[in-house]
Amino acid sequence: MEIQIGDRKIGPAHRPYLIAEMSGNHNQSLERALEIVDAAALSGADAIKLQTYTADTMTLNTRAPGFVIEDPNSLWAGRQLYDLYHEAHTPWEWHRPIMERAKAQGMHCFSTPFDDTAVDFLESLDVPAYKIASFECTDLPLIRKVAATGKPMIISTGMAKLSEIDDAVRAARAAGAKQIVLLKCTSTYPASPDNTNVVTIPNLRAATGCVVGLSDHTMGCGVAIAAVALGATLIEKHFTLRRADGGVDSSFSMEPAEFAALRSESERAWLSLGTVSYGGSSAEEKSKIFRRSLYISVDMKAGDVLSARNMRIIRPGFGLPPKYYDTLLGKRINRDVTAGTPVDWELLA
Asked: Which domain of life is it from (predicted)?
């Protein structure tokens, strides 16, 4: 239950791997794209992720039914798909300088390809991994094309039924993929916490035998932290410099300070998981003295009888455990003792 991207292992034994998704937040400025890379590195991202497509590889330049977003509640209501993808795409000639900047900052950089030509292009750049978007989870020819590279694959599963996820995993494995991460995802933008269903994560892992993570479109980091507690080993969040700058994905993207909080809190959540443990940790050993135990509460003489008047359950914890209180009531002691003496078995006559 572990994969490796570059020199970074991803799995339950390692802190969550964090991906900052640039998407179209560069706002068609290479300078801004490079600034996003720098900010992501400073915020603690392990990787920056791009999307590799053109408007022509995504859709047709038409306003025919289905090619314009008609949902009035969508962030992109009324937008023609072709125009939207043209605005959001990352020019292919930017990929190399972005990847070089990421490498200089100690981060991985890879991308989501949307067709065969994008895979071939990304192979020419020797990317360390690939991401399959939720909407392409059922595009088995694309999955087989990526799997044939032998690189680690991260597959987002938004909207996919378990049978469709199984089809994708089987296709990837049959085509040569050895390292697969599946991401629980809700394909709404933004997503609401109550529609995220992160309790699916352990079930998805058990059903597929894959490393599992979360592609998160909710605001803040609360959902991601919950996912880590349920076994997510990789978290992907959209990333921007400032939501106020606008852009196709900016409204549900994290700003640098928020991503930095995700880095620290996700690691804190992962560290807290530990192992199944009872009886206290070694760090708690010194605290045992603050448990309650049985103590003599007034001066007593040899032969006196223990009672509620002279024996109490108090702190510290050097006496017998409180569970013996009723057993000891009515027993005689064998020597003189003063108040504050811990009760032990050798005290009994």
From this structure: Bacteria
